[in-house]
# Entry
Amino acid sequence: MKHKMEVDSVLLEFGQQRILLDVYVKCETGSITGLFGRNGQGKTCLMNVIYGSLQATSKSVRFDDVSTYEAYKRSDILTYLPQSRFIPLSLTLKRIFLDFEVSFSEFEDFFPEFKLLSNSVIGKLSGGQRRLVEVYVIMKSNAQFSMLDEPFTHIMPVHIEKMKDIMMLEKLKKGFLITDHLYRQTIDICDTVYVLNNCKVYLTKQLEDIEKFGYVRIN
Amino acid sequence: MIITLLCIYFFRLNGESALGVLLWFKLLTLGLFVFFIENYKKKEFYYYQNLGISKSILWISTLVFDFALFVVLIILVA
# Structure
Protein backbone atom coordinates (compact mmCIF):
# COMPACT_ATOMS: atom_id res chain seq x y z
CA MET A 1 0.00 0.00 0.00
CA LYS A 2 1.27 3.43 -0.93
CA HIS A 3 1.41 6.16 1.69
CA LYS A 4 1.47 9.85 0.98
CA MET A 5 2.61 12.96 2.76
CA GLU A 6 1.13 16.27 1.66
CA VAL A 7 1.97 19.75 2.80
CA ASP A 8 0.05 22.83 1.82
CA SER A 9 -1.26 26.21 2.98
CA VAL A 10 2.05 26.96 4.64
CA LEU A 11 2.52 30.54 5.73
CA LEU A 12 5.76 31.27 7.55
CA GLU A 13 6.90 34.73 8.53
CA PHE A 14 9.71 36.03 10.69
CA GLY A 15 8.44 39.45 11.72
CA GLN A 16 7.85 41.41 8.54
CA GLN A 17 9.82 38.95 6.42
CA ARG A 18 7.75 36.38 4.59
CA ILE A 19 9.59 33.07 4.13
CA LEU A 20 6.98 30.65 2.80
CA LEU A 21 3.60 31.27 1.23
CA ASP A 22 1.05 28.79 -0.14
CA VAL A 23 3.56 25.99 -0.40
CA TYR A 24 2.44 22.63 -1.75
CA VAL A 25 4.65 19.54 -1.62
CA LYS A 26 3.60 15.94 -2.08
CA CYS A 27 5.72 12.92 -1.30
CA GLU A 28 4.81 9.26 -1.71
CA THR A 29 6.30 6.01 -0.53
CA GLY A 30 8.25 4.39 -3.32
CA SER A 31 9.60 7.70 -4.51
CA ILE A 32 12.28 10.28 -3.81
CA THR A 33 11.19 13.89 -3.86
CA GLY A 34 13.86 16.54 -4.30
CA LEU A 35 13.57 20.07 -2.98
CA PHE A 36 16.00 22.60 -4.38
CA GLY A 37 16.46 26.29 -3.99
CA ARG A 38 18.97 29.04 -3.46
CA ASN A 39 20.43 29.66 -0.02
CA GLY A 40 18.00 31.39 2.31
CA GLN A 41 14.88 30.44 0.35
CA GLY A 42 13.49 28.43 3.25
CA LYS A 43 14.18 24.76 2.46
CA THR A 44 15.28 23.92 5.99
CA CYS A 45 12.46 26.03 7.41
CA LEU A 46 9.97 24.08 5.32
CA MET A 47 11.34 20.79 6.61
CA ASN A 48 11.13 22.06 10.17
CA VAL A 49 7.56 23.22 9.58
CA ILE A 50 6.65 19.77 8.24
CA TYR A 51 8.36 18.12 11.20
CA GLY A 52 6.53 20.44 13.58
CA SER A 53 9.66 21.80 15.27
CA LEU A 54 9.09 25.27 13.77
CA GLN A 55 5.80 27.06 14.31
CA ALA A 56 4.24 28.46 11.16
CA THR A 57 1.42 30.98 11.04
CA SER A 58 -0.57 28.36 9.20
CA LYS A 59 0.09 24.95 7.71
CA SER A 60 -1.54 21.71 6.77
CA VAL A 61 0.58 18.57 6.98
CA ARG A 62 -1.23 15.36 6.16
CA PHE A 63 -0.17 11.74 6.16
CA ASP A 64 -2.62 9.59 4.20
CA ASP A 65 -5.10 12.49 4.45
CA VAL A 66 -4.84 12.60 8.25
CA SER A 67 -3.75 15.99 9.52
CA THR A 68 -0.68 15.79 11.78
CA TYR A 69 0.40 18.98 13.46
CA GLU A 70 3.38 17.65 15.41
CA ALA A 71 4.94 15.02 13.17
CA TYR A 72 8.03 14.87 15.40
CA LYS A 73 5.91 12.92 17.87
CA ARG A 74 5.39 10.17 15.30
CA SER A 75 8.73 8.53 14.56
CA ASP A 76 6.83 5.65 12.93
CA ILE A 77 5.64 8.10 10.26
CA LEU A 78 8.44 10.62 9.83
CA THR A 79 12.12 10.85 10.69
CA TYR A 80 14.30 13.87 10.03
CA LEU A 81 17.97 14.30 9.29
CA PRO A 82 18.84 17.90 10.20
CA GLN A 83 21.57 19.81 8.45
CA SER A 84 23.95 19.75 11.38
CA ARG A 85 25.21 17.00 13.67
CA PHE A 86 22.45 15.61 15.88
CA ILE A 87 23.75 12.42 17.47
CA PRO A 88 25.21 12.95 20.96
CA LEU A 89 28.97 12.53 20.70
CA SER A 90 29.22 10.20 23.68
CA LEU A 91 27.15 7.40 22.13
CA THR A 92 28.80 4.29 20.69
CA LEU A 93 27.94 3.13 17.19
CA LYS A 94 26.51 -0.06 18.70
CA ARG A 95 24.15 1.98 20.89
CA ILE A 96 23.04 4.17 17.96
CA PHE A 97 22.29 1.21 15.70
CA LEU A 98 20.43 -0.57 18.50
CA ASP A 99 18.37 2.56 19.21
CA PHE A 100 17.34 2.85 15.57
CA GLU A 101 16.89 -0.93 15.21
CA VAL A 102 19.28 -0.96 12.27
CA SER A 103 21.72 -3.79 11.59
CA PHE A 104 25.34 -2.81 12.18
CA SER A 105 26.70 -5.84 10.32
CA GLU A 106 24.79 -4.79 7.20
CA PHE A 107 26.30 -1.32 7.58
CA GLU A 108 29.77 -2.89 7.85
CA ASP A 109 29.13 -4.79 4.64
CA PHE A 110 28.42 -1.51 2.83
CA PHE A 111 31.25 0.36 4.53
CA PRO A 112 34.03 -2.09 5.52
CA GLU A 113 36.12 0.70 7.05
CA PHE A 114 33.70 0.67 9.99
CA LYS A 115 34.59 -2.94 10.87
CA LEU A 116 35.75 -3.20 14.49
CA LEU A 117 34.37 0.25 15.25
CA SER A 118 31.06 -0.81 16.79
CA ASN A 119 32.28 0.02 20.31
CA SER A 120 33.75 3.38 19.30
CA VAL A 121 31.98 6.53 20.36
CA ILE A 122 30.75 8.59 17.44
CA GLY A 123 32.63 11.63 18.74
CA LYS A 124 35.92 9.89 17.91
CA LEU A 125 35.04 9.54 14.22
CA SER A 126 35.84 12.10 11.53
CA GLY A 127 33.17 14.59 10.47
CA GLY A 128 32.51 12.66 7.25
CA GLN A 129 32.21 9.32 9.04
CA ARG A 130 29.83 10.85 11.58
CA ARG A 131 27.65 12.25 8.85
CA LEU A 132 27.64 8.90 7.09
CA VAL A 133 26.34 7.17 10.24
CA GLU A 134 23.69 9.86 10.73
CA VAL A 135 22.42 9.64 7.16
CA TYR A 136 22.47 5.84 7.19
CA VAL A 137 20.43 5.37 10.38
CA ILE A 138 17.81 7.90 9.27
CA MET A 139 17.57 6.33 5.80
CA LYS A 140 17.13 2.89 7.34
CA SER A 141 14.79 4.04 10.14
CA ASN A 142 11.40 2.35 10.41
CA ALA A 143 9.37 5.36 9.31
CA GLN A 144 7.11 5.75 6.31
CA PHE A 145 8.95 8.93 5.32
CA SER A 146 12.38 10.41 5.94
CA MET A 147 13.37 14.01 5.32
CA LEU A 148 17.05 14.48 4.59
CA ASP A 149 18.53 17.96 4.81
CA GLU A 150 21.87 18.02 2.96
CA PRO A 151 22.68 14.34 3.43
CA PHE A 152 25.68 14.34 1.09
CA THR A 153 27.51 17.30 2.54
CA HIS A 154 30.83 16.22 4.14
CA ILE A 155 30.60 12.76 2.55
CA MET A 156 33.20 11.64 0.01
CA PRO A 157 32.04 10.89 -3.56
CA VAL A 158 32.54 7.11 -3.34
CA HIS A 159 30.31 6.98 -0.28
CA ILE A 160 27.75 9.29 -1.89
CA GLU A 161 27.33 6.72 -4.67
CA LYS A 162 26.83 3.96 -2.11
CA MET A 163 24.35 6.06 -0.15
CA LYS A 164 22.38 6.66 -3.33
CA ASP A 165 22.26 2.90 -3.98
CA ILE A 166 21.02 2.32 -0.44
CA MET A 167 18.41 5.04 -0.85
CA MET A 168 17.18 3.46 -4.06
CA LEU A 169 16.73 0.18 -2.18
CA GLU A 170 15.06 1.86 0.79
CA LYS A 171 12.61 3.76 -1.36
CA LEU A 172 10.89 0.47 -2.10
CA LYS A 173 9.66 0.64 1.51
CA LYS A 174 9.40 4.36 2.20
CA GLY A 175 9.38 7.88 0.79
CA PHE A 176 12.14 10.47 0.92
CA LEU A 177 12.09 14.24 0.84
CA ILE A 178 15.62 15.38 0.17
CA THR A 179 17.43 18.66 -0.26
CA ASP A 180 21.10 19.07 -1.08
CA HIS A 181 23.18 21.60 -2.99
CA LEU A 182 25.08 18.72 -4.62
CA TYR A 183 22.25 18.79 -7.12
CA ARG A 184 23.91 16.65 -9.82
CA GLN A 185 24.34 13.79 -7.37
CA THR A 186 20.85 14.28 -5.99
CA ILE A 187 18.70 15.03 -8.99
CA ASP A 188 19.34 11.75 -10.83
CA ILE A 189 17.72 9.71 -8.04
CA CYS A 190 14.73 12.03 -7.63
CA ASP A 191 11.36 11.01 -9.05
CA THR A 192 9.86 14.44 -8.44
CA VAL A 193 11.68 17.75 -8.19
CA TYR A 194 10.42 20.94 -6.57
CA VAL A 195 12.16 24.29 -6.58
CA LEU A 196 11.62 26.79 -3.82
CA ASN A 197 11.81 30.35 -5.06
CA ASN A 198 10.43 33.63 -3.72
CA CYS A 199 8.44 31.93 -0.93
CA LYS A 200 6.74 29.48 -3.30
CA VAL A 201 7.35 25.94 -4.42
CA TYR A 202 7.29 25.02 -8.11
CA LEU A 203 7.07 21.53 -9.52
CA THR A 204 9.61 21.09 -12.29
CA LYS A 205 9.35 18.90 -15.35
CA GLN A 206 12.87 19.07 -16.69
CA LEU A 207 16.37 19.99 -15.57
CA GLU A 208 16.22 23.32 -17.37
CA ASP A 209 13.35 24.41 -15.13
CA ILE A 210 15.64 24.66 -12.12
CA GLU A 211 17.96 26.90 -14.13
CA LYS A 212 15.03 29.23 -14.77
CA PHE A 213 14.82 30.00 -11.04
CA GLY A 214 18.47 31.02 -10.91
CA TYR A 215 19.48 28.03 -8.84
CA VAL A 216 22.02 26.53 -11.24
CA ARG A 217 23.75 27.36 -14.49
CA ILE A 218 23.63 24.13 -16.48
CA ASN A 219 25.77 25.13 -19.44
CA MET B 1 24.65 14.96 40.13
CA ILE B 2 27.73 16.95 41.17
CA ILE B 3 25.51 19.85 42.24
CA THR B 4 23.30 17.46 44.24
CA LEU B 5 26.34 15.97 46.00
CA LEU B 6 27.69 19.45 46.72
CA CYS B 7 24.32 20.43 48.24
CA ILE B 8 24.33 17.30 50.42
CA TYR B 9 27.87 18.07 51.56
CA PHE B 10 26.94 21.62 52.61
CA PHE B 11 23.74 20.33 54.21
CA ARG B 12 25.78 17.95 56.35
CA LEU B 13 28.16 20.76 57.31
CA ASN B 14 25.53 23.39 58.13
CA GLY B 15 22.44 21.41 59.06
CA GLU B 16 18.81 22.39 58.51
CA SER B 17 19.55 26.13 58.62
CA ALA B 18 21.09 25.84 55.15
CA LEU B 19 18.13 23.98 53.63
CA GLY B 20 16.38 27.06 52.20
CA VAL B 21 19.53 28.37 50.55
CA LEU B 22 20.45 24.94 49.19
CA LEU B 23 16.94 24.41 47.81
CA TRP B 24 17.08 27.70 45.91
CA PHE B 25 20.63 26.95 44.78
CA LYS B 26 19.48 23.57 43.44
CA LEU B 27 16.53 25.13 41.60
CA LEU B 28 18.73 27.87 40.16
CA THR B 29 21.30 25.39 38.85
CA LEU B 30 18.52 23.27 37.36
CA GLY B 31 17.29 26.38 35.55
CA LEU B 32 20.80 27.10 34.24
CA PHE B 33 21.14 23.48 33.17
CA VAL B 34 17.89 23.68 31.17
CA PHE B 35 18.99 26.99 29.60
CA PHE B 36 22.39 25.56 28.62
CA ILE B 37 20.98 22.37 27.08
CA GLU B 38 18.19 24.23 25.24
CA ASN B 39 20.70 26.64 23.72
CA TYR B 40 23.85 24.62 23.14
CA LYS B 41 22.62 21.05 22.73
CA LYS B 42 19.27 21.64 21.03
CA LYS B 43 20.22 19.76 17.84
CA GLU B 44 20.66 16.59 19.90
CA PHE B 45 16.94 16.59 20.69
CA TYR B 46 16.44 15.44 17.09
CA TYR B 47 18.15 12.17 18.01
CA TYR B 48 15.53 11.40 20.63
CA GLN B 49 12.65 12.76 18.56
CA ASN B 50 13.67 10.42 15.74
CA LEU B 51 13.33 7.60 18.26
CA GLY B 52 9.86 8.76 19.28
CA ILE B 53 10.90 10.37 22.57
CA SER B 54 9.58 13.90 22.88
CA LYS B 55 11.41 16.81 24.45
CA SER B 56 8.81 17.10 27.21
CA ILE B 57 9.25 13.45 28.22
CA LEU B 58 13.02 13.91 28.30
CA TRP B 59 12.83 17.05 30.40
CA ILE B 60 10.16 15.80 32.80
CA SER B 61 11.92 12.49 33.46
CA THR B 62 15.36 14.12 33.87
CA LEU B 63 14.24 16.95 36.14
CA VAL B 64 11.93 14.78 38.25
CA PHE B 65 14.69 12.17 38.73
CA ASP B 66 17.32 14.79 39.56
CA PHE B 67 15.14 16.70 42.02
CA ALA B 68 13.80 13.48 43.60
CA LEU B 69 17.38 12.30 44.14
CA PHE B 70 18.16 15.62 45.83
CA VAL B 71 15.13 15.34 48.14
CA VAL B 72 15.78 11.67 48.99
CA LEU B 73 19.44 12.33 49.85
CA ILE B 74 18.49 15.36 51.99
CA ILE B 75 15.94 13.23 53.90
CA LEU B 76 18.49 10.43 54.39
CA VAL B 77 21.17 12.80 55.63
CA ALA B 78 18.72 14.65 57.90
